[in-house]
């Protein structure tokens, strides 16, 4: 009986975690590149140089700052939802998530060398990476993912045909 309950719960948890990780994967690289472009401005260039030179535990503290800084924003979003402004609250959460992911991605790129000098961080980061890759493999080999990708490619082909006004040939 217990297995009848735990299997669907584990599957649901896996799907929810996969969606969160896919969101992070989707946004991590493009947002990190956008922040790197911002980092080329003189004022940020000096700040980034300082962040690269941080010792491991200072880098860890800086890496955790976005989580702490976004907590009041998330509380504001919950308050907005609580007073009946659900759309605005959700918009604040989504915007905070995008900005937080962008900052976190850039901070990680800058502090990863220092962070991986911490033995415990390197060990857990290695485990996290293996686990995340296995979860992403599970998602990407699922029928739902393959079907969604097929639809995406069909829509792209249709969109390209509409742009050019002609049907693409086999070489296109």
Task: Give the helix/strand layout.
Blueprint: H1 2-38, H2 42-52, H3 56-82, H4 86-115, H5 119-140, H6 143-164
Helix pairs in contact: 1-4, 1-5, 3-4
Overall description:
The chain is an all-alpha fold. The chain folds into 2 domains: 19-117, no CATH class; 120-162. Helices cover 87% and strands 0% of the residues. The protein is globular, with a radius of gyration of 21 Å.
Shape: globular
Please tell me how large the radius of gyration is: 21 Å
Oligomer category: single chain
Mean pLDDT: 84
Cα distance spanning the termini: 55 Å
Largest sheet: none
Secondary-structure-based class equals: mainly alpha
Summarize the structure.
This protein has 172 residues and is an all-alpha fold.
Features:
mainly alpha; 2 domains; 6 helices
